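worker-03 picked up job from queue 'complexes'. Input manifest follows; two sequence lines, order preserved.
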Amino acid sequence: MTIPVDDFILSKSLSLIEKTKRSVAQIDTAVFPTASSEIARKLLSAALDSLGNRVFWEAMSPEALYNTLIHIQGLVAKVEASTSDHISWPLVSYCDHFWKLLLPTGEVQIFYSVLAEHNYSIGSFTNSLRLLLENVLPPPEIDRILGGKQLYCLQIASLEDENLPLYANIGHEFGHALYRDREPQIISIFTAECHDVFMSIYSVLTAKESGLANRRMNRVAWIVRSIATELFCDLVGSILAGPAFLLSLHEMGWGTDQNSWIMKLSPKDSRIRAYPSFAFRLSCVKKFIQLDAFVQTLRQKLDSLRDKDELKKIPTYVTDITENHLADYVSVRPVSEVDAKAIQEAIEKDIPVLKQCLEKFITRCSEEILAPLSSQPEFLPVSGEQVFELIRRLDAEIIPNIIPSTVQEESLLGVPASFATILNASALYRMYVLLTREKDLGSKEINLQIQKVDRLTAKAIEVSYIQREFNRWKVEEGK
Amino acid sequence: MIPQAIASVGVYADLWSHLKSMSHALERVQGARTIKDIAELDKARLVALGDFVKKELEPKDFADMLSSGAFFSRKSMGLSYSMDTDLRTILQDLPSFRQWLKSQKISVKDKSAKLNEALEEYLKNVNESLFPENPPKEEFEILHDLLSKLLLQTESALIT
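worker-03 finished. Artifact:
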């Protein structure tokens, strides 16, 4: 007698469906940081109900079903980690505010979770679920479960308390959702600007092995598209956080080769990942954040301080970031991939032209897609003068939440500092603390100094958010 | 560690599951006796198989695709898979394909195109609620053999 393996796997799967349903039902909804986490929970619950519906069992591959359920555990974990125990509400409230400014229609929503790694990541929760269900449920049922919703999950770094200045990267992550939302317009710019370089790469691939050129070119297209997406997201990060994004991006590249364009092939096209070199990215960001005006004002103000020679060097933390990308090269991985070497050679040959095309692409994106956003008060360039005021406060160990009033202003208390201004002051001052530590300090003292900056920043973000909400309420109530 | 394919995660596990579900649908439709035996999911997985095979065996000319403005859209490029091996070579190495090739004097390219045509014709009938009296037995067996070969390759990629 042959053991009916499929029957075994189906039974195991059905049992796992119930177990997972219980896990989803037991998630503590009271600690969700925002209401949208409940949408994710309900989507999972609906998907599991459908998988448990015997009408669909017969046509399902038991192996595919079990594998889908294993992958679904990862989505459940994201919802379980969506808890205000680990995510600060002022941060997500600010994030939600920016999200709604970027994607105002309300059709695209977001919930917040925590990433096991010390980094930030965004992904479409609904797309991930759709791809998993496609193997085991008929398309009309999947459409019914998802109901046309588009829900993203932003995963915040697990060591959140140690990561405040890297909040600037959240803008970059939001850029991925904005890219998807404006995809047709962005793609049309991309196709127009990259047409010639694509044809050049294609001719190299055709000359090498014509039979494989079309397939390889399809993968090259995904690679270049992935690179263009990253650069577009950097633009969004720059608009939201200004020089703080430049510092964050710079910090993300610490310890790594600044000139390598990393490309990772995958059997799944949408999982092909490619990143331009840090040097090229930093150079692009510098062009878009109006650094000169910011640095000039900040320098002027800092120069007026007495006995603060080290503090006066703060502007150099952004101006001295090197962005020489002349020595850039391409690295396609994994090397065992049959297409890797051919793709690497073809792209590397055209890298200078590709850079020019990508620069034109982001310039047009900035003018045609992001310009309307830049006029919103929240996205105006940060003021060097205001950042200076907050740096002074941090230096005096005072919460950097208020921009002191000037003589012309009515309020003697000053105005609440914006999220971006706090972020910039904190990022620059933290850099100052890290660079100017006395050599005989132990780890305990260094940690204490860094913690002071982090805590003052966290408190400033919280207080400024409350002040902002209070001011909005006052206007609405006509008080 | 003992590798277990069904409990693996990651991109190769996604591919494995994708291939398994298509292989399962092929087996089911081959055993179907009436139109009622063919579920919506079977049809959807056969459509996915057709897209997959067509993309790998009959890749479109990139220059033509580039001239169509929609090429780079996620929808057009699809959330699909690109094998890291040449599917045409694998196909030509299959004994069932070689045997089938002998039966008619046409090129490998035309013959492989016929695989997809057979699948498309079958789906067209099924979608019109016509139960195909003569399902393309040989073509479906070749496609099944092809999926089995790819599953084998993918399983070795699952080992971490």
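worker-03 released lock.
Chain B touches chain A through 50 residues (CB under 8 Å).
Residues 5-158 of chain B form one domain.
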